Amino acid sequence: MRTPKYSWIILIFLVISGMINQVDKIVIGLVSVPVMKEFHLSPSQWGMVGSSFFWFFVLSSIILGGMADSKNTKKMLTWMSLIWLTIQFATPFVSSLSMLVITRMILGAGEGPAPALSTAIMGKWFPKHRHGIGFGAVLLGTTGGSAIASPLLISLIGQYGWRSAFIFMGIVGLIVLVLWIVFGKESPEEIGMPSFHMEAQQTSSLSKVSWREFLPHLLSKNFIFTVLCGGCAYWLLSIQAIWFPAYFTKVQHFNGQTLKLAVSLPFLFAAICQIGFSLVSDRLYRKTGDIRKARINLASSMMVLSAICVYLAITVNSSAISILFFTLAPGFAYVILSLAPAILMDFFSPQNIGKAQGTFIALSSSTSIIAPLVFGYLIQYSATEVIGYRYGFEVTALGMFVIGLLFWIGVRPTKKSHIAIKAEEQLNI
User: Fold this and answer.
1) Within-domain flag for 200
2) Which of 23, 62, 111, 282 has a CA that sits 20 to 30 A from residue 416's CA?
3) What is the per-residue pLDDT for 170?
4) Per the confidence metrics, is the pTM higher than 0.85?
5) What are the Major facilitator superfamily (MFS) profile domain coordinates in residue numbering (predicted)?
């Protein structure tokens, strides 16, 4: 089945939506130093602010993400986007720790279903052999958008205060929402073409089932190890969003252009990794038809390499080399987030992918609840802030290394036939 040209327009919207989604997350980290100073917050309190985003994020990922299998995904994404921009406009008016925590909780609830929605929409608009590049492009938007937005937002914060960053993101979100309402489509049926869900149903071994029937499939070894590996990426992602800017400012004493580079380069490299490794993964999948060779080995090896980079980043004496390793680490770790949807699409049918992806996001992102709190506690109660940050990064590196190896060794999916992949390509031609 040929990929409709309109699929690429939908992909552009998903990429831009992912950009806004991610920048809305990281903007709180960019304003960490002035907000902590204005509200007189301790490191442990700031850790709670960072953690609060994921309190309802996890719950909404499961409940609303699962609804993506049966509800109108265009309408769901529209309502979610409305929540995002509303919170951005409301945050400049907060005046206390409790109000700040409440806004982060609501934002987390609104953004929780976004990955599952994107996955469900992708399954409708793109064939299976293009899932890697499709999901990679969406993830490219999240990291690439952060790389572009971070220097701009840092300049706005320095010139107009921390509230200007939230106002700016609210305006951007409003513009994109209007365009999505006008040009967004639910599925190819709206332009007179069949959905790729119909094609995938013929090769799927697991038909659409209820939550009660679906839960046992989530206890499989493959799914559990995939969640653990994704949890490592979300752990590092939350640390990058909440604590990297403060670490670079207070410990490394970066400012001006150096601070902008230290904050934005990890996102830029992550964007390159996600699109690059997605292309490599899709190529290997088309060539071998083996998801382990094409996706699992790639994601696990990058996680192990990321753990090594995190450890080296805090042991080297050169600031330039430290920035280099802090740039490499997130890019390698986030490869699992780019490939996980494609892996899950191989484990589960498209009729259940909303449940699978929503549960994956909910469980793996739950580490983002813990990570900011752990860092805040270590920073506040260690002998010095420098020692506290060091302990936090050492714990991060060790966990990523061990789980990366377990994912590499433990995930053993059923091998797919290379002939089936070739047949699909011939059908497309």
Assistant:
1) no
2) 62
3) 92
4) no
5) 10-416
- What one-character-per-residue DSSP string does 206-224 give? S----HHHHGGGGGSHHHH
Q: In this structure, what CATH number is given to the domain that contains residue 406?
A: 1.20.1250.20
Residues 271 and 142: their CA atoms lie apart, in Å, by 8
> What residue has token string 């599952």?
116
In sequence order, which residues have a C-beta less than 8 Å from that of residue 342 and are 6 or more positions away? 131, 132, 135, 281, 285, 291, 295
Domain that holds residue 278: 6-186+214-428
The pLDDT, as a whole number, for residue 204 is 43
**Which residue type does 329 have?**
A
Number of H-type helices and E-type strands within the chain: 21, 0
Residue segments in the chain with a per-residue pLDDT below the cut of 50:
198-206, 416-429
How many domains is the chain partitioned into structurally? Answer: 1
40: left (phi over 0), alpha (psi -120 to 50) or beta: left
What's the helix, strand, coil split of the chain in %, to 5?
85, 0, 15
Sign of CA dihedral 313, 314, 315, 319: positive
Render pLDDT for 283-339 as a digit per residue (tens, 0 to 9): 888 888 788 888 899 999 999 999 999 999 999 988 899 999 999 999 999 899 888
CB 263 within 8 A of CB 146: no
Q: Which two tokens stand for residue 245?
A: 């800017």
Q: Is residue 230 part of a domain?
A: yes
> Tokens 């492009």 belong to which residue?
137
Question: Cα separation of 72 and 189, whole Å?
Answer: 13
Q: What is the crossing angle of helices 335-347 and 297-313, to 10°?
A: 160
Classify the phi-psi angles of 213: left when phi > 0, otherwise alpha if psi is within -120 to 50, otherwise beta. Answer: alpha
